[in-house]
Automatic annotation (TrEMBL):
Protein name: Quinone-reactive Ni/Fe hydrogenase HydC
UniProt cross-references to InterPro entries, sorted A to Z: Cyt_b561_bac/Ni-Hgenase, Di-haem_cyt_TM, Hydrogenase_cytochrome, Ni-dep_Hydgase_cyt-B
Family: Belongs to the HupC/HyaC/HydC family.
Subcellular location: Cell membrane
Keywords noted in UniProt: Cell membrane, Electron transport, Heme, Iron, Membrane, Metal-binding, Transmembrane, Transmembrane helix, Transport
Membrane-spanning residues: 20-40, 60-80, 126-148, 182-203
SUPFAM superfamilies: Transmembrane di-heme cytochromes
Organism: Helicobacter gastrofelis
Membrane topology: Multi-pass membrane protein
Taxonomic lineage from the root: Bacteria, Pseudomonadati, Campylobacterota, Epsilonproteobacteria, Campylobacterales
Residue intervals of the Cytochrome b561 bacterial/Ni-hydrogenase domain: 10-216
Amino acid sequence: MDSYHKTQEFSGLVRLFHWIRALAIFALMGTGFYIAYPFLAPHSSVYKHMDLLQAYIRSTHTMLGFILIAICLFRFYLFFFDRKSRDERVAVKNVGSVGAWISQLKVYFWLGKPQHTQGAYNPMQFMAYFTLCVLLVLVILSGLVLYYNVYHLGLGGVLESLFKWFEVLCGGLSNVRYLHHLATWGICLFIPVHIYMVVFHSIKFPDGGADVMVSGIRYVKD
C-alpha cells in the first residue's frame, strides 16, 4: 500500500487571498453584467424605493474593484517576495520542460501517472494561472480608466494622470470598455475549466487536490 507524507504547500495568507479574490470576482461579474444590461425596472411598483438601483450597483462594483486591486497587489508581492511562496516561484522551471508538458498531458488524457514536478504547479497549471493574472491586469487597467472617466476629481484625477497612457494605447474609451468586457469573458471561461481540473485531480489522485487551498497541505508519495 502506498504511503504519503504531508507538506505545507500554500501559506495561510495565500489561501485567504485566494478565497477573497474568488468571491470578489464572482461579485464583480454579477454587478458588471447588470451594469451592462440593467434588466430590472426600479420605477415599477415593486421597486418604488429603488430609484437609484443602478447607482447602488455601480458603487458596489467600484468598491469591489478596488478590493480586487488590493488583493492582487498583495498577492503579487507574496509570489515574488514571500519565503513561503518559494514553491510557486520554483514552478516556473516546469514551463520550459518539454518532458513535464508531455507527462502532464498524459495524465489529463488518462494515459499516465503524475510525475513529481518542481514547485507547486505543473506547467499547464502555471500557464493557466499566468493567463488569469494577465486577464486580471487587463480588467484592472481598463476598470481604472473607466473609473476616472466618470469620477474626474480626487482619486479619479490622480488615476487619470497615472493611467491615461493605457486609454491612449487602446485607442479610446470605447475600446477600453470592449477590452474590459473581453477580459471578463476570459475569466468566465477560466473559472469552469479551473474547477473541473481541480475536481478531476482530487478524484483521480489522492494527494490533496481541492482541499489544498483550504488546508494548505499537499500529500506527497513516499
